[in-house]
Structures are given as structure tokens and as C-alpha cells.
Amino acid sequence: MKKVNRYKVFAGVCALALLGSCDYEDINTNPYEMTEEMGKMDGIAMGGPMVTLERYVIPVGTQADGTDIINQYQTSYHLAGDIWSGYFSEDNNWYSGNNHMTYYLQDDWVSSMYRNSYTEPFASWKKIKQESEKAGAPEAFALAQILKVSAWHKTLETFGPIPYTHAGEAALVIPFDSEEEVYDAMFADLQSAVTELSSLAEQGGTVVADFDAVYGGDAAKWVRYANSLMLRLAMRLKYVAPDKAKQWAKTAVDGGVMTVRTDEAQMSTGAGYVFVNNIEWLAAQYGEARMGTSMFAYLNGYEDPRLSKYFSPADAANSYALEAFDGSKYAPVPPGHVQGNNLFELFSLPNMTSSTPTYWMRASEVYFLLAEAALEWPEFGDAESLYKQGIQMSFEENGLTASEVDAYLATGATPVAVSVRADGYSYGASAPTRATTEFTGSNEEKLEKIMIQKWIALYPNGQEAWTEFRRTGYPKLNPVQNNRGAAQGVTTEGGIRRMVYPLSFSQSEEDRANYEEAVQKLKDKADTPASRLWWDCR
Length: 538
Prior knowledge:
CATH topology of the domain at 294-472: Serine Threonine Protein Phosphatase 5, Tetratricopeptide repeat
Distance between the termini: 35 Å
CATH class of the domain at 294-472: Mainly Alpha
Helix content: 40-55%
Order of helices and strands: HHHHHEHHHHHEEEHEHHEEEHHHEEHHH
Number of strands: 10
Strand content: 5-15%
Number of helices: 19
Shape: globular
Structural class: mainly alpha
CATH architecture of the domain at 294-472: Alpha Horseshoe
């Protein structure tokens, strides 16, 4: 983080907002005599806010935005879920070691997460809601609902109770809903959106196509994505509300989920934009993002061909690099260190370019969700077959051939211990598990294998990986070297269970009362990073 302007927003938001707030009467009186229906079909009134909303599902910007969005992503997601998931560690040390890497929460980073996952998307969603109602365009609002859930479920699964069912109402203070209430409302919103878009999808139709950077307005793909998102959220509730989880998982599958690589939801190019990859910039330009030791332990131990797809070998000048199965040398950075920057400068970078897509959801994740569902409820299919399909899809998504999977599943290999050295520094971690890739053992052992492979396939979506780690306890990760959250109840084994609410939530008297009511809706009734969310009950 070489310079962090945390409270700036996209340079292009103002222009987009102006575009999105075009008055329909002005449109209808243009020289071409555009009718209201033409304006609706063109999607101009909803278009600007729609693409802005997409850009905040996971903050992503263009070259024109400079480093503003990259900084927002870093403080919101990267220095949180991306490292708590075990994917990355950093060649830097913020706040003298009192930072998220060492489980010490910083309010400005916490506030950044809430703002970028909730507040920023809210403004665009509300604008689309207003414009779609004026224009009589329910299909545009259906898409906005899908995008809202895509963004806000991250807020929900990071903090706990959030304002949802009363969001957008004209009130000074919007009350928080319990986590269960928000999940119920999200399921209902997704189902309603799918119903609205299904007839359009069956006709091969589009929605706000010129302003959709994800699918170019393809209604059929949006339906499959919405159902897949529903499946993700349904499985989140498997342990806390199994009947509800099964019900919504079945609804999602019956409606049609992602099955092929081209179904993936991602941001790279579209709607006239070329987006840059945040993590590549954090690694190459800021010189901070580096390979985490847990990734090396699993990928090298399994002799996983995705190792070189995910990370680059260490700089040739790094005498501390570790020999890997593929003949190259890699140098992972330990979690929770308190070393200053440049100690790990020559260690392994993520293998990305500025044009690498920012993925929301991929078909491989869906297969692993289905494998877990089938392991729990056999009517969802054969868990082993779905597990294998998930690995095959992940291989394909990373430019590997599915034919390599059989050999990968038969090696009997296990993750390895990791010993890291640098100048005057050392870290060691034993092998995190003895689990193999072969789908054998008890149901609990099979669950661990599903979650390990899902974790590998999810890379670099650290937010989702961190959430699933909290939900299931898998994969087992290398421990942080320094735990500075212990005073708040954070354990080295369990890590951060949630972010605390930003301090601004309790500044005024009205906000304080609303904040205290939200805290009472937490399962532990305590606003701490050790408090477990509703579904975090294993």
C-alpha cells in the first residue's frame, strides 16, 4: 500500500451517476423522438448505476481510476479475506505489526470493508430501484437485486446483522435485521429475480445489455448465476438451519446452475470498459502481495499442476526458495509476521497480469457445492462424481486438461510441512493435514477433501474462501506467527471470525441505540472479532 486514499471513490462514478440520472422526459423529447418504451429498452436511465453496481460487487477499476479502487480493494478485501483464507501474505508491515495479518483489527480498514461492500453498492441499487419503477422496467430491477445480494452477502458474512429489509426507506436510522432475516430476504429476492428474468431468458433476451460488463445482458446467464448464488447461500446454512439449506439448494438446482466454464461471472472487459486486476497491481506495483505458505503446503504436497498457474517461481536471486515438484523454486511468505517491507521482496508473486479477470463465481465452485450437498443429501447426486467434476472444471478454468485429473487423484500425496527462511528470520509449520486427494474415508474426511479442493479452486477469491473456512473448519491452515488479537478473544487456530462494526456506527445517540440493537442480534451478543456468526456453529 504505497499510497492509500481510502475515502475516495471511482473517478468515473460522477460521470456514471450523471448518465444514470438522465431525466426520462428529456430523453423522450430528443430529436429522434425516442419513446418511453425505447428509452426503457435502451436502458440509459438504469445503465450508469448498473455498471457502477457491478463494479462494487468486488471493487474493480480501470487504468483511468488510477490507484483509488486498488487501494479500496486492498483495505477492504485483500488485507482481510485474501490473507485470512491462507492465499496470500504480504511483504510489508502496517501499524507496527498491529494489523489484520496479525489479527489486530484497524478501524479504517474495517470501515473500508463496510463502505465498499455495502454503502457504495447501496447508492447505485437505490437509483436503479427508483428509475426502474418510473420506467416500468422490472427486469432491470431484477438484475439490480441479484447484484445487491452479490455485494451485500459479503457484508452480512463479514459483520453479521445489517440493514436489509428496510434499506432504501425514508428514515433517519434504518434498523438492522438479524442474519436469519437477511438470508430469508436474500433467498426471496433471488427467487423473485429469477422468476422475472426466466421468460426473457427462454426467449434468448437481454437486459440492459450495453451496461452489463459481466454477461452483456444475457438473461439466461444471469438466471444461472442467480441460482448458483442461491446455492452458495443455501449451503452456508447447512449446519445452522439444515432444512432451510436443503430447501433452497433444491430450488437453486431445479432452476438451473452453472455447469460450464463460460457461465462464470467475472469482470475483465465489457460495457465499454477494460478493468485492471487489483491483486496483480498489489504484487507487481506495490511490491506487497505474495504467496502464502498454506498454498505452497497444499499445492506442492499434492503435486498440483495449478501451482505454476497460481504463482510465479521466486526471483532467481532468492537463495531461500524451496524446491517444488515441478522443478522450479518457490518462496512463500508466512502468515502473521511483523517484518518490515522488502524482507520478502524476492519471494513468489501471484501469477497474474493486469488483464486477469476478477472472478465473482466459477462453475468449479458450483460442482463443489453440489458435491457437499450430495454428501449430506444423496438425492443431489453422487458426491464422488461431483467432486471429480469440480476438480476437472478447475483444471479447465486454469488452462489444464481434464485428462490430468485421474493421475492427480491417484497419487496418494499429502500436504507438506513448510520451513521459511530469510535474512535473520525463520518460520516453520508442520503439514496441515494428512488428507489425500482420493475420495475415500469417512464422510467427515470426504468433506475435508471437498473443501480443500474447493479452496484451491476458489483462488484468489479470498473472501469466499475465508467464509467457508469459518463455516466448515477446512482447509486447515498454517498458523499465524503473531496473534495480536488474543486480547479480543481471537485464537491462533480459529482466526478472525468476523469484523467488528466500524466505530462510526456508535457516534451519535441515535446511531448508538441502533448499533446496540444490532449487537444484541449477534449470536454471542458481543461485538468482537471472536464472536461467531449465526452459521458459524461447528
